[in-house]
Amino acid sequence: MNIYFQTIWRDLNIAVRNSSMMLNPLLFFIMSVSLFPLAVSPESELLAKIATGVICVSSMLSILLSINILFHNDFENGLLEQMLISKHSLPFLMLSKIIAHWMLTGVPIILLSPLLGLFLFLDIQSIKILMIVLLLATPSLSFIGAIGASLVVGVKNSGILLSLMILPLYVPILIFASTAVNNFIEGVDISGNLYFLATIQLVCLMLAPFISSVAIRISLE
Amino acid sequence: MLKVKNISYQKDYNILFKNLTFQAKDGVILHVFGINGSGKTSLLKILAGISTAEKGSVSLDEHDVKSFEYKKQIFYFGHLPSLNLTLSSIDNLNFLTNLKQSTNKTLLNDALNKIGLKGYENEYCYRLSAGQRRRVVLAGLFLSKAKLWLLDEPFTALDKDGIEIVKQCINNHCKNNGICIIVSHQDNIFANQEVLEL
């Protein structure tokens, strides 16, 4: 098997064996969304109005919660050093790790969103748009998160620092994602929002693996 | 031949070495020793291309340390085990080896057998002792096609048999014109070794 697929497979394998590592962010996502009706109001109209925002914010925070460990274990056990001096491309190895992270956090969030959407009284058409929006937004969240995680990989207790660095970069994605679904509900054209989200994803795809690999190289110096 | 010319390295405000020059011909075992904090591990990291010297040059057979050809020719065994404890010995060794070269299950099993881990191939690494974990990584020596081996304290946590197996493997490598640089606090590890004191 190609080393890049092997890296993805390895990370998925490790996550399955440390199931709490994978389930924590997902449980956080489910719990935070499901607590809103209890705290705000059980009225269907109000919940449908805030549903997209709640789901987008929760997914963002749940990815942020899991991003800290993206490179941390491999840094601690010395595998990143071996990756750095391997004959393979470090940016592509980083890309594989980011894809594995998205498969472990982004994909379950997308798959759970219809259920949580129904829970918050979103109609079926809006849920479909929500899933498309999450499909475009969650990879960008993993890519941007990876840049932050690689910058603080050698720093102890870097959780707050990482959040401060990443959250401002998440804001444009949050705005485009939540307004896309709200605009759809109000009957406004949403193609602009989707194009923006797709563009952000492509830019992140091109830049994040390279920035991460440079940051890792500096951290290992 | 490994050539190291005038390299200097400083960590924070501490100058570890200045204008260090040495060379290791093919077939040489170079034992690097020195007091704690003298820069032995830093030197190995520079030779591995993980750290960069402030000045000077490192080359192997005229290939610079930053070149792809150099990277292909090194095997680095550092302080950290590079193992994920939730994976099996063979999975860990397979991934580590694949970062350098292609391999197959027979070769991996064979290497684990040679290092004395027969029967532990599918054992999760968290169930292994410290010495056995180090053996998993050191099994990579039997698979490595690299010319330059950089080993940082390879005998730590190994028993007598383990030390003998690794020594034998290093001797065989150097008989085949390989170069081995060992950082260790043990004295006179090999009869035919050259010595570098930091």
Kindly state the mean pLDDT of chain A as a whole number? 92
Indicate the proportion of strand residues of chain B.
Answer: 25-35%
How is the biggest beta sheet of chain B arranged?
Answer: 5 strands, parallel
- What string, H for helix and E for strand, traces the elements of chain B in order? EEEHEEHEHHHHEHEE
Number of β-strand runs of chain A: 0
Task: Quickly count the domains of chain A.
Answer: 1
User: What can be said about the biggest beta sheet of chain A?
Assistant: none
Taking the alpha carbons of the first and last residues of chain B, their distance comes to 21 Å
Percentage of β-strand residues of chain A? under 5%
Placed side by side, the strands forming the largest sheet of chain B appear as 6-7-8-3-9
Oligomeric nature of the chains: heterodimer
Order of helices and strands of chain A: HHHHHHHHH
| Fraction of residues in H or I helices of chain B | 25-40%
Could you list the spans of chain A in which at least 5 consecutive residues all have pLDDT below 50? none
Contiguous low-pLDDT stretches of chain B (5 residues minimum) are none
Describe what this molecule looks like in 3D.
The complex is a heterodimer of chains A (221) and B (198). Chain A has 221 residues and is mainly alpha-helical. Chain A has one domain (2-220). Chain A contains nine helices and no strands. Chain A is elongated and about 55 Å long. Chain B has helices at residues 40-48, 68-72, 89-98, 105-114, 130-138, 140-143, 160-175, and strands at 2-11, 14-24, 29-33, 55-60, 63-64, 74-77, 148-152, 179-183, 194-197. In chain B, the strands form two sheets. Chain B has a five-stranded parallel β-sheet, with helices on both faces. In chain B, a hairpin with a 2-residue loop joins strand 1 and strand 2. In chain B, helix 3 crosses helix 4 (105-114). The chains are: A mainly alpha (221), B alpha/beta (198). The interface between A and B is medium-sized, with 23 and 26 residues.
